[in-house]
């Protein structure tokens, strides 16, 4: 059984996931990403929406910090990087995780179900938008010091 299959099986629950499973590759975090990193917008910046907020820190940096926290199994730091109304969409799941609580619950189960050697490696991250970030990632290999390897497509 592959690591991905066992991970999906261990994370699957009727309250979190639908029945459709696709290969994980891309993630979109949309809406407000970090509530504490937003400052009031000026009237010059957004004349019709002066009460809106604009990011003080670029959204892609917040998302990179989020994955760093997850890779460190630090849900407390990850919590500070997720706004209450954040939406986490991953192509492997049939519906998005909506809100800080749902996202943290998912990643808590992910951390519990995987080895500490499993790491998110960001392949590409969008930098154009301040309210939504697209991320392509893969799960990294074990550290070289263990001398263990993942075998994909082994034929005897």
UniProtKB/TrEMBL annotation:
Gene3D superfamilies: 3.10.450.50. Residues 61-139 form the Nuclear transport factor domain. SUPFAM superfamilies: NTF2-like. It comes from the Eukaryota. InterPro entries: NTF2-like_dom_sf, NTF2_dom. It holds the Pfam family NTF2. This is Nuclear transport factor 2 domain-containing protein.
């Amino acid at each position: 059984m592959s690591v991905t299959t066992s991970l999906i099986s261990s994370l699957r629950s009727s309250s979190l996931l639908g029945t459709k499973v696709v290969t994980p590759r891309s993630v979109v975090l949309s809406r407000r990403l970090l509530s504490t990193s937003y400052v009031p917008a000026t009237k010059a910046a957004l004349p019709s929406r002066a009460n809106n907020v604009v990011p003080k820190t670029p959204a892609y940096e917040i998302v990179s910090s989020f994955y760093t926290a997850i890779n460190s199994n630090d849900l407390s730091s990850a919590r500070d990087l997720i706004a209450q109304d954040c939406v986490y969409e991953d192509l492997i799941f049939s519906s998005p995780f909506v809100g800080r609580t749902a996202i943290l619950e998912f990643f808590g189960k992910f951390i519990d179900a995987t080895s500490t050697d499993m790491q998110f490696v960001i392949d590409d991250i969008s930098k154009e938008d301040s309210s939504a970030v697209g991320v392509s990632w893969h799960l990294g290999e074990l550290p070289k010091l263990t001398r263990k390897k993942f075998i994909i497509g082994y034929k005897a």
